[in-house]
Amino acid sequence: METIDNHYYKSFDQLGKAFYDWERHLINIGCSTTDFNLNQGQNLTEKGSLESSKFVHEYIHFLQNFATSWGTPVFTDLTLAVMKIGASSATSDEKLILPIDKSLVTNRLLLDGIELRETVINRINKHNNWSFNENDILPIKNVTDSDDCIKLSNNRIVTELGIKLIREHMAHLGTQLYLKKSDEEIHSYNKNIFTNKDSIFSRDPEYWILFEYVFETGTFSNIARGIFHLTQNNLITLNPEKALLRFIKWFEVNKTTFKKGIDFYDVVESWLMSNDEGNYLYVGLTESIKHCEKILTMTQKHQSTNDLFAFTSNITDYALANIKKNKGGRFLFNRNDDFTNVEFWKGKVLEYGTGILRYLDNVIIQGSETHISKMNESFYMLLSTSLVLKRIFENSKGNCPFLDEIPICEADIRESDNCFKNPYLMLIPEKEKQCLFGNGVLLTGMGKRLKL
Hints:
Helices cover 49% and strands 8% of the residues. By secondary structure, the protein is of the alpha+beta class. Strands 1-2-10-11 form a four-stranded mixed sheet. Strands 4-7-6-5 form a four-stranded antiparallel sheet. The radius of gyration is 23 Å and the shape is globular. The termini are far apart.
């Protein structure tokens, strides 16, 4: 049962697969609303259960972004980068040639926006290096550690335990728990899925190596739930990979002292109460709140001058409220939560809401009425401006993405010639408010700066 997401955003040509495009906060569901829709409350068919498990995986990623101490400053910085790029048009009419070469950019605010976006991408991919060789598989062992991260290896894969591994283990194991899989069943699933030809455990270590490292000790129970708890708490710190490094070093020293059969959740709790781990959680939450409040103050001060400030303000306020409520993610998921119950996930969506959900037959935002009314326009405008910037940085033209890829265009000027030839050239009448790509061009200040 394939429920994993092996990529972030690649191409909207893959609409039949579930994925989370983190830069645009869009969850591609990969099925129709008749197959699975949390708002409908239908009894899930076998296909519906499969599709809902894919949603669970991608929704956990969304919550990592907007409901943890690590995620909120990273992803509010992403909206801040878009805002800086848009606001820079007010201070310069510098002409830009596609693709933009930042070494030629003279506008400081524009350059700040471009570099902040690059910084966010680097923070997402921090310590995600791994290598593969043809050696026989041996038991997973602690290979090396540094001041930055830990490495694990089974002598075939050597991988850093970085941000992607933490995020993917949490999402993958949360999904397996939703599907009612035991540790032994997860081990068998991992062994069957993460193979390269005839070699087990020879690809995608970010989904399995930490789980298998603990599983092969033969000592612990409820490993999946414990590792989910571990990675959740890693994301409450400012440097999750360093938190995982501290855990592995502590675990290596103490693992032989635990009684056989001990719940791995309790092992993680023991670590969280050791040394200064509580202080790391406190600092992570405190600094994340300060960061978001600083952005919020600035955007609220200037939101009457440009809609981008208002959209960034809404998104920052949303993320800030989340981490204040759940203590940086500490109470995002709790020990007694029933992951197997679809009603639990409905409740989570009602509590936190979603970004944009792209079904094959609909594009919607779900959550409470308050969430939808407040965040709908902000998420759609972020989607629009981010897609405009994506195409600019890639020197890509093509059809307007809101015709077929994300079919939400309701503009009167829909299917004009430029929608198909070059949407950058859309001339939006004053009364026309629905041309998302055109508005994205205007909000990013690219209408008068691009030399096409």
